[in-house]
Structure formats: C-alpha cells, structure tokens
Amino acid sequence: MLILVENLAVPFDKRVWQEARTLRDAGYDVNIICPRSAQHPAAHEVLEGVNIYRYASPFEARRAAGYLLEYPLALAAQLALALKVHRAGRLDLIQACNPPDLLFLVAQPFRLLSGTRFVFDHHDACPELMMAKGRRPGSFLVRLMERLERWTFSTAEVSIATNESYRRIAVERGGMAPEDVFVVRSAPTVSRFASAREDPAVRRGKRHLVAYVGVMGIQEGIDYLLDAADLLVNRRGRRDIQFSLAGSGPEFARLVARVDELGLQDNVTFLGRISDEDLATLLATADVCVNPDEANEMNDISTMNKIMEYMALGKAVVQFDLTEGRVSAGDSSLYARPNDAGSLADCIAELLDDPWLRADMGEIGRHRFMSRLSWEHSVPHLLAAYDRALGRPASPVPVPAPVPAIPLRIDRRQRQPDLLHQRPLAGVVEERSA
Prior knowledge:
Layout: E1 2-5, H1 14-25, E2 31-35, E3 44-47, E4 50-55, H2 64-88, E5 93-97, H3 104-114, E6 117-122, H4 126-132, H5 140-155, E7 158-161, H6 164-173, E8 181-183, E9 208-213, H7 222-235, E10 241-246, H8 252-262, E11 268-272, H9 276-285, E12 288-291, H10 297-300, H11 305-312, E13 317-320, H12 323-329, E14 333-336, H13 341-352, H14 355-373, H15 379-389, H16 417-422, H17 428-433
Parallel strand pairs: 1-2, 1-5, 2-4, 5-6, 6-7, 7-8, 9-10, 9-12, 10-11, 12-13, 13-14
Antiparallel strand pairs: 3-4
Helix pairs in contact: 4-5, 7-8, 7-13, 11-14
C-alpha cells in the first residue's frame, strides 16, 4: 500500500505516522510519499519498517497564485515516486491525505490500469478551509474546492473521516454510502507521553506557564492569543505568566515580529518545531493549555490534535466555543466567546488563579482521553476501513479492552476535600463513572 501526503513531512505528520505503524503491525507493506523538510531531508529512508519517499518542495504557498505552482510540482513528484514504488511490486491500495483535494489524480492511473483501490483520508474540509482564508462562500475558488472534493469522494472506495462532522460531509456532500465512511479520530497513543516530566526551567522564571502547540497559520488564531497575552501582561500587570508556543508555519515570522511590537518579549516565547521529548516536557510543565483556533466554518467542524495531546497529559484547556472542540474536550475545557481575545484572557486567568478547578478539569480530560479518545480506540476502525476497501468480509468493529491508566507523573499540591465539595464541577460524576 501507498500513502500520499502533500502538506507535511512524515513522521512529523503524527496522524499519518500512527496510521502507517498501525497498518504495518497489521501486516501491510507500507510506503509513504511526502515532501522533504529541514528535520526530514532524506529522499528515501526505511523508518521502523516503513518505506518513506520524499520529494523536494520549493516553497509553501500562502496565496492562491502560489498554489498554482506548488500543487502541480507536488503532483508530478508524487506520480514519479508512485511509479517507482509500483515498479517494486503491485500496489493494492493508495491512501491520499488531503489537503489538497487533488491527490486522487495521482491514484487514478493505478486505479484504471491495475485495479488499485483508493482510500481518501479526509483531514481538512477544503471548501471551508478556503473560506477560513478569507474567500467568500460561492466565490470561484470555493466552488472549485467543492468540485474537487466531489471528484475525490467519487473516486474513493472508502473514506476515512476524523469525526462525525466530516463523516456527514462525506455522505451528504460527497455522495458516499454511509457504510463506506469510517470515523478514525486523531489522538496520541496512551504511551506517547508516559515518560513526561516537569522541568521548572521551561517556566523561564515565571510562576505560571501557558502552552500552545500547533501550526502557525492564519486560521489558527494565534493573534487572538497574543492579544489575550497583551491584555493580561501589559494591561492587567500579570508579569507572572509565561506563554510558550511550539510549532511553525507560514505566519511564524510575522507572529514573532508582533510579539516585539506588543512589547511581550519577556513573557511570550516562540519555540519553533521541537522534539517529542521537549513537547512532552512543555505540556507536562504547563498550568494551562490553549487552543485559540478562530471560530469559522472550518474550525467549527474540525478536531484539533493539540486538544487530544493536552488531555492526554491531564491539562485543563481554554478554547473558543466550537462544535467539535466541545465534542473532544467536554468538561475538561473552559470555552471563551468566539473570537473574543478578552474572553480568552478571562478564561486563562480564571484557571491560573484556581488550581483546584484546573486540576479537576485536567483529571476529567485525562479520563476522557483514556476511556474513549486515545489512538487505541481508533485502530479497529482504521483496520475495518481497509478491510472494506479491499473487499474483505465485513466484521464487527471490536470494542477495545479498557486501557489501564498510566499514573500522571506531575507533582500537584495536596488538594483540600472541603474545597472540592464546596464547588462541585459539572460533569465530574458523569465522567468518572463512564
């Protein structure tokens, strides 16, 4: 089998890497084609039994004109590498991970000439993504994205959705039969952060640490987070808060410059892309984790990997009030008014000033992650999707055995039972008895 990825290098793309290792463990011969990156420059390597082929990507487009150059070059490179993989042995199945909704063009020759099956791994709703980048509903580019999306779904034997909102798109907008669409949620494995330890040095001398991890793009809402930091630090005098942001993307340089403009150099640090070990340390040390993705058509229906990572480490979350954000986090998050930096700042301050509240919310999130959202719960659905695509007899999706909790290795002060009883947190009983 072959997995196509255009927008991220592997294994940096955690969802694709987890899928690849899961399929390898199930006996598949897994190959991946993706772009090169500074962290992963090798044109070809075998990593944990998975063949990864990478092509040079000259740049990451930020505007429509740039995509006209980026995507044709990427498709040509992917097709050339796919032919190389095909010459080494029959390709039974190709999985394409969007964006863009153009990768079916690479799979189509193999479908028509050798009967290769095609699975669409639906990461992003591209029409909504285009609107999140400022295009009007009904505009030429949005309508083009809708057409490409339909073509992608029409060529797929099976579609993999990241949540129920995306499953509805596949059925209602993509015209796929419900039995051909499988929900495979993105999340870390239970063991990924098992060795995470706090490091006081990460606080940079501050009493509190607020952490963010993710892409630095326009729709990720980092500007709202910087505005909230400006309110807390410069206007409310909260010099005791350190904001540390891990990740990179097309807006990285502009956002770093904006920190200087706001005079937040002593309280806001951009870490860039960091190792898994450093990420685990950052999140283990954080008091509060934030997801400032702006409220728009795209983010409202999307599941954010960062929320799953926060919950895996038992961290209270602050985010804007979005549909799938609530589905993921439930009572482990405070929900700010959409696109309101002041409300975001208020929620962050509330949790920083109430250690008992954030401890309880963190416990709710970790239990929620362990009991229903970790990657182990998605594995049976992924394997069932592949069985369906390859025409194997359908079998019931097994329910994973209860996953034993790994004790958090994060020191917390001893809580006072009377304080917890005085202010019960909605959802605690329901979550702990689930």
